[in-house]
């Protein structure tokens, strides 16, 4: 009975969020069990180009470090905000969501080459948080019960928290920068005088991922509850 309940809850998670979160958990589990090592996963342009270890282009986004606070913190935010984006502004637009993943991953890979970052998963999480926060500017956030602020400040609060933990903020800045590039090209520039839509989802992605039918019984995760935890709760102003 418990297995059926867990399985049902798992399958209710949107497909992109479910796939990415599962891949991250399985990758971390494989490292913990010493089936693989982080040295086989990290981003290394030389090994990719010279030794054709192309899997590193993907695996460096799947590992957040050994199981601990940093891993749990990143996974909670990854799951929460990835799911709310997929069920919110990308509802019924799975191909566009996948294209956002590809676009963001490509930019981070290019930038990561110059700033010498070996794992980009945390930056990718910050990118998701940034895009969600800019698309939900009226949501009031509460962080650890200590800070109250508008949603667009959430990525910067997370960067400050990362700084307090002694982590490098380059990763956070990269996620914010890539998130802003996507947000500007997708949401801002097309609405400017003389602007246009530069980001267009390839047709083959739409053929692969978009389905014409809507599930009438689908119950999306409400975006007005962005945190769900003491470190990220919020409510929409005027609601």
From TrEMBL:
**From what organism does this protein derive?**
Triplophysa tibetana
Task: For this UniProt record, give its keywords in alphabetical order, as a comma-separated list.
Answer: Endoplasmic reticulum, Membrane, Transmembrane, Transmembrane helix
Check the record and name the InterPro entries matching this protein: DER1 (IPR007599), Rhomboid-like_sf (IPR035952)
**What is the name of the protein in this document?**
Derlin
Residue ranges of coiled coil: none
Bilayer topology: Multi-pass membrane protein
Family to which the UniProt record says this protein belongs = Belongs to the derlin family.
The lineage's top-level taxon is: Eukaryota
Q: Where are the transmembrane segments?
A: 20-43, 55-79, 100-133, 153-185
Mind listing the GO biological process terms from this record?
ERAD pathway
């Amino acid at each position: 009975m418990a297995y059926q309940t867990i399985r049902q809850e798992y399958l209710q998670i949107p497909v992109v969020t479910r796939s990415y979160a599962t891949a991250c958990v399985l990758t971390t589990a494989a490292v913990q069990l010493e089936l693989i090592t982080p040295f086989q996963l990290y981003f290394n342009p030389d090994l990719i180009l010279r030794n054709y270890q192309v899997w590193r282009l993907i695996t460096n986004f799947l590992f957040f470090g050994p199981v601990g606070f940093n891993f749990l913190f990143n996974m909670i935010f990854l799951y929460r905000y990835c799911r709310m984006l997929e069920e919110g502004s990308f509802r019924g637009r799975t191909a566009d969501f996948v294209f956002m993943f590809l676009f963001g991953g490509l930019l981070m890979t290019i930038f990561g080459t110059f700033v010498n970052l070996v794992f980009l998963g945390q930056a990718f999480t910050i990118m998701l948080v940034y895009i969600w926060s800019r698309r939900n500017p009226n949501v009031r956030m509460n962080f650890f019960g200590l800070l109250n602020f508008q949603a667009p400040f959430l990525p910067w609060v997370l960067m400050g928290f990362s700084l307090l933990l002694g982590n490098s903020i380059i990763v956070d800045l990269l996620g914010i920068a890539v998130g802003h590039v996507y947000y500007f090209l997708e949401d801002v520039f097309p609405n400017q005088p003389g602007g246009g839509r530069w980001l267009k989802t390839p047709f083959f992605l739409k053929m692969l991922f978009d389905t014409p039918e809507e599930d009438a019984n689908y119950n999306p995760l409400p975006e007005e509850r962005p945190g769900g935890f003491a470190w990220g709760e919020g409510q929409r102003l005027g609601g």
